[in-house]
Amino acid sequence: MPEVVDKLIEFHKLNRDEYAELLKYSENAEVRDRLSSEAVKLRKEYYGDKVFTRGLIEFTNYCKNDCYYCGIRRSNANADRYRLTKEEILDCCRNGYELGFRTFVLQGGEDGYYTDERMADIVRCIRRDYPDCAITLSIGEKSYESYRMYKEAGADRYLLRHETANDEHYRVLHPEDMSLKNRKECLYNLKKLGYQVGAGFMVGSPGQSIYTLADDMMFIQELAPEMVGIGPFIPHKDTKFKDEKAGTVDLTLYLLSIIRIMLPKVLLPATTALGTVDARGREKGLMTGCNVVMPNLSPVMNRKKYDLYDNKICTGEEAAECRGCLERRVESVGYRLVSERGDAL
Description:
The chain is an alpha/beta fold. The chain has helices spanning 3-11, 16-23, 29-47, 86-98, 116-129, 144-153, 167-173, 180-192, 210-223, 249-262, 272-277, 281-286, 300-303, 319-332, and strands at residues 50-53, 55-60, 103-108, 134-138, 157-159, 196-203, 227-232, 292-293, 336-338. The chain has one domain: TIM Barrel (Alpha-Beta Barrel).
């Protein structure tokens, strides 16, 4: 067994060169099994057999950014744009609450229509109606003051995937008017304000290498977020990367195990992207260290429009059906879906 494997398991951290070396063994069955069994052991030690659900509400697909990989990027004229009203968002929460969801994730593009005041008002209303629930926002890069306003209104968590921690790779994926420095600063500001913070990246995105992935591992190690969301890159037909290959499930699972060992108490979702690339992707995620799933509570008529990448799953099912189906999937690999907030330890 390579030394780096034992070192990661013993100390829960490595340096950049060691992460790069560890990534060279991603196709070695013995190494994968060792990391996977250690990840599952840690996940069970801290969270038992519980799998937490997050009710995802994709409330706007307008976005001022033009990220090259994203289907709702500003310059995609084919995107069918929509916005949910406050009442529609609260309806999604009502539906979700009845189904046993105790965390709501409000996710959208960076849409100027939802001013800080509007967002804070929506958060306050959810907090008033569902005091026992966690409120997570995933609405991109904002100022320290904006983040503080949402926090004071009642938001608990914030998801902001860093996408890559390597400057050169960041330039491959994003236009000139965006910067990795700003993205990282946002994540540190969120930490300062006391949010439970989620970072993450796409696996197999154009220009990615074991060295850029080693930078991702170093950044996650340093930031120590409460949540890490990773999933395979999936090309979208209306982007410049439409002909690129999708990221692989195997490498994603390998990285999930590594992240669980690095951060034993982390909240680690088996993402929709994982389930899109492989019909049993989410189950495989749970078997390599994941403990969160994020079914969609958005109105069915809008789900297909929130089209970050092609062939996204669960765009036609009702949330209730989706939850029942997920319950069975989770139980099939020896875990159970629970109706809890599921805070980070």
